[in-house]
Amino acid sequence: MTHLLGLTGSIGMGKSTTAQMFRDAGIPVWDADAVVHAVYAKGGAAVAPIAQLFPDAIVDDAVSRDALKQLIADDSSVLQQIEAVVHPLVAQDRQQFLAANDVPLIVFDIPLLFETGADQWLSSVLVVSVPPDVQKARVLARPGMTEGQFDLILAKQIADTEKRARADHVIATLDLDETKEAVQKLIEKLTG
User: Fold this and answer.
1) CA–CA separation, 83 vs 52, rounded Å?
2) Is 77 helix (H, G, I), strand (E, B) or coil?
3) CB atoms closer than 10 angstroms to residue 3
4) What element of type H or E holds 5?
5) Cα–Cα distances in Å, from 190 out to 19, 84, 102, 104, 106?
6) Which of 181, 191, 183, 192 lies closest to 128 in space, CA to CA?
7) For residue 130, what are the contacts with CB-CB under 8 A and spacing of at least 6?
8) What average pLDDT does range 25-33 have in this prediction?
9) Does residue 16 surpass a pLDDT of 90?
10) Cα–Cα distance between 4 and 118 in angstroms, integer?
């Protein structure tokens, strides 16, 4: 039986780095953000249905995330309409990934894991975390990021303290070597 491990963490907590550590260890990682980018890209499965709903959201034959953000800001009902198109496409991709990987452990990298209820179908959940000051410094070091944008992103995410409380596993991502060691121990625990 395959163990389905959800990987999540608030912005700046080291989720992408940790996901790469699982990949480097030979564990298949399904990346929700990458799937959304693919369905929004030129030729992606979401382009035509979103073009029908919101023609202004299409730029150069692809879905413009900036245009979507503006549409959602102007009308909150837009988000539900977009999700009705995108969520089934993402779920289909996830099922295909699952079917293609008959292994003891699969990681599902899902930024809004608890927010979307994914914890209901996963075997267990890993939350990566750092103290708030480290998180803020990491995020503000990103190109073009402002404190205002950071605050908006945090407002849409469940608080780190709640995520850690709901998680089956928590890994601190302050030190790369320690994180890598914790990932390896968790792999051994879940596949042993």
Assistant:
1) 14
2) helix
3) 16
4) strand 3-8
5) 16, 34, 15, 8, 10
6) 183
7) 12, 13, 14, 138, 172, 173, 174
8) 97
9) yes
10) 11
Q: Which of 108, 140, 136 is nearest to 122 (CA)?
A: 108
Q: Which amino acid is at 6?
A: G
pLDDT tens per residue across span 154-188: 888 899 999 999 999 999 999 999 999 999 999 99
Q: Return the H-helix or E-strand segment holding 169.
A: strand 169-172
Instruction: Provide mean pLDDT across the span 57-77.
Output: 91
Residue 180: left (phi > 0), alpha (psi -120 to 50), or beta?
alpha
Q: Count CB-CB contacts under 10 A for residue 107.
A: 27
pLDDT value of residue 72: 87
Please give the model's pTM, rounded to 2 decimal places. Answer: 0.90
| In the predicted structure, residue 153 carries a pLDDT above the cut 90 | no
Q: What structural domains and CATH numbers belong to the chain? A: 1-28+104-192 (3.40.50.300), 31-100 (3.40.50.300)
